[in-house]
Amino acid sequence: MKLKKFKNIDIIIDNENSWMWDYIVMLENVLVPFSQNVRLFKNSVDIMHGDVLFILSCDKILNLKDLDKHKHNIVIHASDLPSGKGWSPWSWEVESGANKLTLTLFEAKLELDSGDWYLKDNINLDGTELIDDIRKLLALKEFDMIGEFLTQYPIQPKNQTGQESFYQKRTINNQEININKSILEQFNLLRVCDNDNYPAYFYIKIDGKIQKYIINIFKE
């Protein structure tokens, strides 16, 4: 199959601490066969006009002026849209015990996670994965979907249908361990704790003094 060539293919990651940076070279290698001009932006004010913009791990929602600079503005959201809109969907789902994560590749619009979708795919979990394992699986699947989108382009978009739901943004407050529950009961919460940025923690009161303790988790 002869690959379609694009004048520009662009990426934006505006979160300097995003785990996606660990995989950026891999993504660029996926994109190079489709365009000789792959550009990476770290801030929306730097976005230049192009064919396709892949919006990955962004904290800020792009405005209409930003979106108008590309024919396609593509997001991959780790839920089966319109279910699971919002923030950190896969970590909420893993914490709730999900063993399959659905990813949706769709067209960005001003309204959060509301655009028509092009592709959906899944990754399966066996329940032993910690956060870095899950991130790697997500990155590999996202890049497969990006390659499929570009290979099959143009793809007919589909409207989102079904019951929508929303996740709140995850914060450090969501990582607290309940000392009155077992490790097994809270293992899925431990799986989505980031040892560096938002580790698990607990409070314990001893002799009238409350002390906070940090938990780091690793595979042997």
Question: Would you kindly provide a written description of the structure presented here, covering whatever features stand out?
Answer:
25% of the residues are buried. The chain has 220 residues and is an alpha/beta fold. It has helices at 24-31, 64-67, 89-95, 131-152, 187-191, and strands spanning 9-12, 38-41, 50-55, 70-77, 85-86, 100-107, 117-124, 166-167, 200-206, 209-215. The strands form three sheets. It has a six-stranded mixed beta sheet. It is 21% helix and 25% strand.
Keywords:
six-stranded mixed β-sheet; two-stranded parallel ribbon; 220 residues; alpha/beta; 21% helix
The helix-strand sequence is: EHEEHEEHEEHEHEE
Note poorly predicted spans.
Answer: none
Question: Radius of gyration, Cα only, in angstroms?
Answer: 19 Å
| Proportion of residues in extended strands | 25-35%
Structural class: alpha/beta
Alpha carbon gap, first and last residue: 44 Å
Put simply, the count of helices is 5
Mean pLDDT: 95
Helix content: 10-25%
